[in-house]
Specification:
Length: about 280
Amino acid sequence: MKLSLSTRVAEAPRRKDVALLSLDEIAGLAVGAGYSALSMRASQLSYDSGLDEVASAARTLTDHSLAVSMVTGDVDLAANNNRAQMALQRITPYLDLAEALSCDLVRVMMKAETDIPHARRAADEAAERGIRLAHQTHTCTLFETITGAVRTLRAVNRPNFGVTFEPANLMLAGEPFTAKAVEALEPWIFNVYFQNHRLNRSGTHIQETWKRGPVGFDLIPLDAPDGIDFREVLDALTETGYDGYVTVHQNVADGLDIGDGVKSFADYLRSIADFD
């Protein structure tokens, strides 16, 4: 497996469109902590960024010897709002951005059964360019539950359309979120995201879900003892032979020094699993 860092770590708390650090600063922190890639979000670079800006970002990544593990090409995808699924209907510029960053994975989102034909067409176009599409296990989408995710993946039925396995959102939806979830989704896991939550009715965050309504939780460090058992998740992934990226998707800026958080999360993950 390979360790990746989401540029979300340096977004302003509760914002998807405001970056607190430049790409060069994030890249420097990532390299210093031992990550091999960045997961690029629209707070840094989006599908409608200028060609010069994209080229500059690509040079920054090359200068730091960092790959791009996945591209999230607009703020709507990151926010999972009522426009998140629109990327499937105009996938070309998202593929252009991924290609410019030498990345073969693009994030998409689906809200309704009517998105399935768009997902098929988008996957077919992506396949022509050697690019895969991945939908995160996420609340208020067709991938909120494991059953829903599997049903949708089978309906799309494209070898380059898979899932970003993210256990925290499964936990919020009241779903299995460790080894059983990995086993159920194993044929389609293209990518892995890690962030840690503690369920708490009076928590500092509220997440809407289709299955359970509003769910309260606290955002906690990856190594907190009363959150997700990431060792179990990583052991299950290892059992399946997964050798892709594991990305720290935590908003480090929400309560921690960004540099300290970036390093401590990498150190923790390396202490419980083997990474290239």
